[in-house]
Structure formats: C-alpha cells, structure tokens
Amino acid sequence: MKEEVKIAIFGLSLNVLDGIKQKIKIMYDDSLEVSWANIADPHLDILLVNDMFFSSPTIQNLVGAKKIPYLRLVNKNEKSGQIEGDKLYLPFSVTAETRAWFKERYLQVPVSNKTEKLVQKISQSIDLIKVIPEFFNERNGNLQVFDANGNIALMNIRTQQVWADPTRKLQSTDASLNYTYATMQMAQAVNSSQGEDLTSWVWNFLWYSSDIDLKLHRADFYKLQSWPQPNHQNERQMVFKISACFEVGASIHQVAQKTGYSIEQLNKFVTIGLLTHVLGKIPAESAKLILEEKPTSGALRGFFGKLRMKLGI
After folding, report:
1. Which residues have CB under 8 Å from 120's CB, separation 6+?
2. 91 preceded by a cis bond (ω within 30 of 0)
C-alpha cells in the first residue's frame, strides 16, 4: 500500500490551482500517493495558503495550534519557485528548493515570533454574530468570504451583490466563517456578470447553518422590514407564515401561539432576520398581531346551556 501525503491549497483561483497540483504531483515518486485535502481534514500534512488569507483565525489555528507545515503563497515573478522563510513565490515552478521542502513533508516549519503573537490574538473560533454585520457595512467594499471548507463567495457590499463560488457544494457554514478584503483583480473578475441579491443570499446561507445564536429577550417585539426569499420550496410555507405574523409586529411567543411552530424555529428565524436586516425591533405598543381568544370554561357552559334549551334537551 502506498504511503499518502495530504495537501490542502487554499485561496487560489481554479486555473492557478490546477497548474500547481500538476507540478507538485510530479515531484513525488510512485511510492507516495498525493491526496488533495480540505483544510478541515484532521490528517492534513501540508498547507499552502494564499498570503492574503494567512491572518484569518482558521488558518492561524492550523499553523499555530495544530503546527501544520505550511507555505504562504506570494505572487512575485522574479522570485518564482523560491522559498524564503515561510513564503513560496508564484508562479510555481519545480526547483531543487521546492522539491526538497515537499519531500520533507513532516518537517515542522518554525512559526516566527510575529506569527506566534498573531496566533495568540486571533486563533479562537470566530463569533458569527460579529462577522455577519460586516457583510452589510458599506465601508467594506468588496469582501472575499470563506470558512474551513474553502471559498464561499465574493461580495460587493456597496452594490448589494454576491457571487457564490461555483465549486462550493455546501449550502451552509459554521463558526469558522470569516472574510478578507478582496483584491481589485477578484472584483473585476465578476463585474461582467449580475450577482445575486446580498440580503437574500445571506439569509438563505445562514438558514442552513449552525452556530448562529443571538441572545433574544422574551419580552421583545419585532416587525418585518422585507420578505425573505427561501430557496427551497419545502421551506417556503413555514417561512412565509412566520413572516406574515411579523409583518404586523409580534413577539416570538405570540407567533408560536399563532402558528404552532417551536420556539427554537422562531428563535432561528428572528436571529437570522435581525442579522440580515429582514427584521427590526419595535416597541410593544406597535405590535398588531391579533391572537384568537380561546373561550373560557364559563362561556362554554353558557353556550351549551343555551343550546340544550333551544333543542329541548
């Protein structure tokens, strides 16, 4: 059985990625099998990461806490194929230096003092409640969004558009969600096509995700500001029914009483609604949801008494 080396390459375009994979594979002899892994793979041997993503908490956890051997990929034509410290210069080319580094794949690459400080500062899990509002902050311009499973999308915050990565299969994310500022080259690559509506896309993406939890107060009331547009047909009845209740203003418990949906389902709806500005908080006196009053036992006895008299029972 062949020995295996698992390599993850993160943050590169598909055409550049394919070229690097081909060149890396020919550096190993037939006794070693090269597998292309996800950065979430617990048995990862080598990580190659676009330098612009290097400071993200997800990557820092891999190179700092887990000590995965890594190289930061930096574009510099005149240094192509050279390795300086923890940087590998692109375009990728097979040199004696790169060949030696990859063959010694279990060599633990030292982490610089500067990197150690960065790891200590930002290696914890990202708080989604802090990340998601940045998707609606106009000062951010263009954002590249990613998580432990790879690239997710490019966003233009000012035009309220998003271009999802066509190679991504997952429709959800988790606490590893993060972003970085997109380069001009990235933004120009999608400018010729129409993106999806930012609010609708984020709402749907979060609807199927975990680790999203705002601390909601039972006494708060909310009002719908815009209707969510669920992608999946089987979710629409529930989402629209809940939305109709909040359209006139209501609390979570009122909507639960009106619809029969669980508090957990409604907490999720309200959390995502607040994060995407689909919902807004309102004072109690502005809530107009009308609940059907259940007849009291006295009223029921009176009703049946009159009925018996009328029927002569």
Report:
1. 64
2. yes
Note whether 82 and 8 are same-domain residues: yes
Burial class (CB in 10 A: 0-12, 13-18, 19+), 311: exposed
Structural domain that includes position 22:
3-122
Name the residue among 58, 59, 177 with its Cα closest to residue 128: 177
Q: List the strands of the sheet with 32-36, edge to edge.
A: 32-36, 3-10, 46-50, 70-75, 87-90, 83-84
In this structure, what CATH number is given to the domain that contains residue 302? 1.10.10.10
**pTM over the 0.85 mark:** no
Domain boundary among 90, 122, 154: 122
The amino acid at 177: L
Among the candidates 122, 157, 191, a domain finishes at 122
* Residue 127 pLDDT: 67
Exposed/middle/buried for residue 275 (C-beta within 10 Å: 0-12, 13-18, 19+): buried
Q: Specify whether 203 is located in the same domain as 217.
A: no
Q: How far apart are alpha carbons 269 and 277 in whole angstroms?
A: 12
Closest among 138, 122, 131 to 173, alpha carbons compared:
131
pLDDT digits (tens, 9 = 90+) for 246-289: 999 999 999 999 999 999 999 999 999 999 999 999 999 999 99
3-state class of 113 per DSSP? helix
The CATH number that applies at residue 17 is 3.40.50
Distant-in-sequence, close-in-space partners of 176: CB < 8 Å, separation ≥ 6? 40, 57, 58, 125, 126, 147, 148, 149
**Residues listed for the chain:** 313
Note the pLDDT tens digit of each residue in 43-54.
888 999 998 888
> Tokens at residue 25, please?
């594979």
